[in-house]
Amino acid sequence: MDSTQLCSFLLTIITGAVLPGHILAVIPVTEKSYRLAVLPPFLDGLNSLKSVAETLQTSTDFLQDIQQVDQLIKASVKSLTEAENASNVQVRALSLNLEERVGMIKSLDDEMKRLEAREQGLKEHLSGLQVQESLARQQLQAAQQAVNNANYALHRAFAAKQAAEEEQKLGIGLIFIPIVGPIIGGITISKANEAIQNAKKIMFEAIQDVGHHSWAVSRYEDESQSYSNEIHSTKQKIWANTREIQNSQQNLNCERTLQQKLTNFIISLRKCTTLLSTLAGKTIVGNMLMELSGTLDQILPIMNEIVESVRPLVENSTDYQLLISARLPNIIHELKEANRRVKEAVASKQ
Fold first, then answer.
1. Which of left, alpha, beta for 329 (phi over 0: left; psi -120 to 50: alpha)?
2. I want to staple 53 with a disulfide (CB 3.0 to 4.6 A). Which of 227, 267, 319, 338 is the partner?
3. Coil, helix or strand at residue 296
4. Which ranges form a coiled coil (predicted)?
């Protein structure tokens, strides 16, 4: 596929002339892609201009060589127009890229806000869980202390019962009233049994409380860990999102800069092709030398504009920098010399 076909193909895609049901893909525009698309026809156009200048400088009979000059001018117009069209394709592709990238950055910003809100909500929920976990731990400690207290009371009740039973057997302090001893001892044992039952009940309830609060602490720990993990995951997403926004913004700025460079190049190129187009085909009629000289007078400053507009497009390509920097000034010099010769020829005929 030559550069003309490539331009036609790209223009078809850019203008949306695709099969129904097919998605319009944005064409990636890089420094390499636009150099490959734009610079070859541009250099061909310069070569044709160089040949125009050389022909005019070496001609001994302008009337005889004017047909060749006309063909070279037409060839230059064709190549430079092709370069302009290729540049337009790149600019349109960049416009699509910019539109899509702006939309993508907005989506990323919206997603960032959602993630940040999600992170804040998770943190607030985690904070509430941590308060509940702390309260559950306090309740667990109180329940464990209640178990210890109940256990201590139970041991004391058993000890009291044992002491009462011993007293009953020995009948201490009841020597003079034999019938009272068993009665008093019986009451003491009864109270001890009551204390034992009460201590067992308290211990049972305390053990149940320990189990309940242990489960609550475990649940809050699990939930807190789950929320901590989700917060960490959300932070990672926020970090990745931030990087993507930064990269997209950087690419957006680069594409805007490139679009402006290409636009400046197109403007200066169009001035040149417009002038050459008005000249092409007219060099064989009328006052062709005066018309040629007048056109060259206008083209020379435009060529300087082209030099200034093409330099930013090749600033990162050493090969093209050398090629452009060597060829353009040389062509401008030769066009000046050719214009000087044409002016001399015009003056000699007046």
1. alpha
2. 338
3. helix
4. 98-132
